Amino acid sequence: MATDEIARSRRLAVMGGTFDPIHFAHLLIAEDVRRRFRLPRVLFMPSGQPPHKDERAVTSAEERYIMALLATSDNPHFEVSRLEIDRPGPSYTIDTLRALKSELGEGAQLYFVTGADAVLEILTWRQPDAILDEATLVAVHRPGFDLARLDETLGARRASKITVIEAALANISSTMIRELAARGESIRYLTPRPVIDYIHKHRLYRRDEVAPEPLEETTA
Question: Residue 182: CB partners within 8 Å, gap ≥ 6?
Fold first, then answer.
């Protein structure tokens, strides 16, 4: 699909998250959802102020945004949005979905992609029923979270509005990468090389006394 057709499309997937850092599971899930629902684009949405996390424990929004740009730059169907980063206050999903629909206009169709851990807690989000009305919620299985409990946890009506999918490499997590980086261990093959280089250059997640495992230089 041509670039101008992608820009005009009113059907897209929204990958929300802190992306601290973004990794290959995020990218694989995004591409899987794009193909599965025949969507022309996926919008990665780094949160500005995650309402369910201690802001002091999260890497700056600008650095998370840059890492998302580095990771997605080679896929013409992927875009990274500054919507939540530039909007003041906590990053509420319902505000984001409504802003996107207002921008896209009548007929907009959104697929909001999130992990099993998050969807099982959706009743703690702001206006959860409105979220389920504004977008098709796509929940991705993650190890240790039983999505068979959706009916029990959310009720049959809400659960019926959620599409559950399996995804490759869903056991990769940002937490895993941060912990490995903090110990100076390799994070190769967990996230794209430009993101690894950025993490090392800016000493993200590092304990000062720990040096990162060196990477071999690539050759042209």
Answer: 205, 206, 207, 210
Residue corresponding to tokens 């946890």: 153
Displacement of CA 188 from its chain's centroid (Å): 20
Q: Are 135 and 13 in contact (CB under 8 A)?
A: no
Element (H, E) at 164: strand 162-165
pLDDT tens figures, 162-220: 999 987 666 788 999 999 999 999 999 999 999 999 999 999 998 765 566 665 554 33
CB 169 within 8 Å of CB 24 = yes
Strand 162-165 and strand 78-80: the pairing is: unpaired
Nearest to 45, CA basis, from 78, 11, 1, 5: 78
CB 162 within 8 A of CB 193: no
pLDDT in tens, 96-106: 999 999 999 88
Name the pTM for this structure.
0.85
Question: For a pLDDT cut of 90, what percent of the chain falls above it?
Answer: 70
Q: Residue 110's CB: how many other CB atoms inside 10 A?
A: 20
